[in-house]
Design goal:
29% of the residues lie in helices and 10% in strands. It is of the alpha+beta class and 149 residues long.
Length: 149
């Protein structure tokens, strides 16, 4: 569930599709507590809540067939436990479908660079004009990986 935010009390949910009772993971308003949290642009990142919600979901279980991670970016990498958890998944034989940000101004985010350069990674550069074209390619790749799992 992603809900873009407005100033003054609205929040942006990100990371997982979760029931409504989970706490917000990033705040774009100016709560006193939030001023101690790291920021990315106008968003404050509640690392403790993020870790409490996301890290258990990145555990490998016997019945896990696929991991879907909606972005590995600056906000997520404020958690010192997140990147090692994602790298453990990459080193497993369980397929992962994840989004990562593009390299901007010739600079990659260090943790994202490790994922981008992982030997098992297949990268697709998507944008609004080619996303329909790549839909079938990505789908076929995921189905192929699942059949080998």
């Amino acid at each position: 569930m992603n809900r873009e935010s407005q100033p003054m009390g609205q929040v942006l949910y990100s990371g997982l599709i979760l029931p409504f009772h989970y706490p917000p993971l990033q705040h774009c308003c100016r709560f006193l507590q939030a001023t101690r949290w790291p920021t990315v642009g106008k968003y404050y990142v509640d690392v403790a809540s993020f870790e409490r919600v996301v890290l258990p979901e990145l555990q490998i279980h016997e019945d896990t067939d696929l991991f879907v991670i909606d972005e590995v970016g600056k906000m997520e990498l404020y958690s010192s436990s997140f990147l090692p958890a994602v790298l453990r998944l990459l080193d497993s034989n369980i397929p992962i479908l994840a989004s990562i940000p593009v390299i901007k101004h010739g600079r990659d985010i260090p943790g994202v660079e490790r994922i981008r350069n992982h030997p098992g990674a297949t990268l697709y550069m998507l944008n609004p004009s080619n996303r329909d074209e790549f839909r079938e390619r990505v789908y076929s790749k995921v189905v192929d990986l699942l059949s080998k799992h």
